[in-house]
Amino acid sequence: MMRFPRLFSLLATLLLVAPAALAWGPEGHAIVADIAQRHLTPEARKAVLALLAREGKTRLDQVSSWPDEIRKDHPQTGPWHYVDTPLRAPDYSRRRDCPDGNCIVARLPHFLRVLADRNASPQVRLEALKWVVHLVGDIHQPLHNADRHDRGGNDVKLVYFGHPTNLHRIWDTGILEQHTGLRMNPVNYSFDHAATLKVALRMDSRIMAAQRMQWTPAHPLADIDAEAVQWSDHAHRLAQRVAYGDLPARRPDGWWFAYQRKAWPVVRDQLDAAGVRLAAVLNAALR
Ligand code: ADE
Ligand code: ZN
Ligand code: ZN
Q: Domain count of the chain?
């Protein structure tokens, strides 16, 4: 009689330890990287290509999810991907939310300064480049900037378009995949780079000039600490207003249609803004 419950609990455990979503899915990070790469200055492009060449790579999207890949072997880097600003708080507080500098709002500026440092070794600067590409993406994901005692929504289980998942994961990947038809392999996180690049190019071509100017910081390197706080605060408000604010308490089948309609424009704008800002910080660090 014990066999069945044991088998059941083994299966349940396997499902529970499936990798928690830590970031935009790989397609989200690739889109941010692809948008940015189109807007590099000649100097920044040359420096980026020289660093990537050390690993035989030519595009930023090829390294944009690297911090997620190494996270398992470097658990101390886990908190660098997000900041647990309490959902009810109006905005980020360094004292409350990032006391040891162990959060995205502090790590992103740190890695940007390493990347800009000509005295750092190429290997160290390449690693910093990978972090910057990744963290500019993550800091634009609303649920990487908010927490309601639920690990940024990871503990909010729900069904989205028929698939059992959670609130965090749909903001990492589900909303984007639903809109674009892109699909990553949920087992090994592989995805179609060519199809993703096409989506990125279409998104980039639709960014309004005024919007692009508004998103571009005047002094991306000198002001990076304040910029990171502003980016995080804006994403936090989107978590309040949309990710949680528009989430119905009762979720009968089909609830997802209304939610998707509100969430997709937010995901799109955040990926666009991240791409524009990533180009700006790389251009400033690699001039
Ligand atoms: N783990 C705890 N809080 C998290 C968040 N906001 N995003 C991702 N992972 C988390
Ligand atoms: Zn991440
Ligand atoms: Zn995530």
A: 1
- Contact call for residues 227 and 235 (beta carbons, < 8 A): no
Residues spanned by the domain of 49? 4-285
- The CATH number given to whatever domain includes residue 200 is 1.10.575.10
At residue 188, the pLDDT reads: 85
Structure confidence by residue, pLDDT tens digits, 180-227: 999 988 888 889 999 999 999 999 999 999 999 999 999 999 999 999
- The protein residue whose alpha carbon is closest to atom 6 in ligand 1 is 152
DSSP letters spanning 16-69: HTSPPP-SS-HHHHHHHHHHHHTT--HHHHHHHHHHHHTTT---GGGTTTHHHH
Coil, strand or helix at 212: helix
Determine the distance separating the centroid of ligand 1 and the alpha carbon of 137, expressed in angstroms: 14
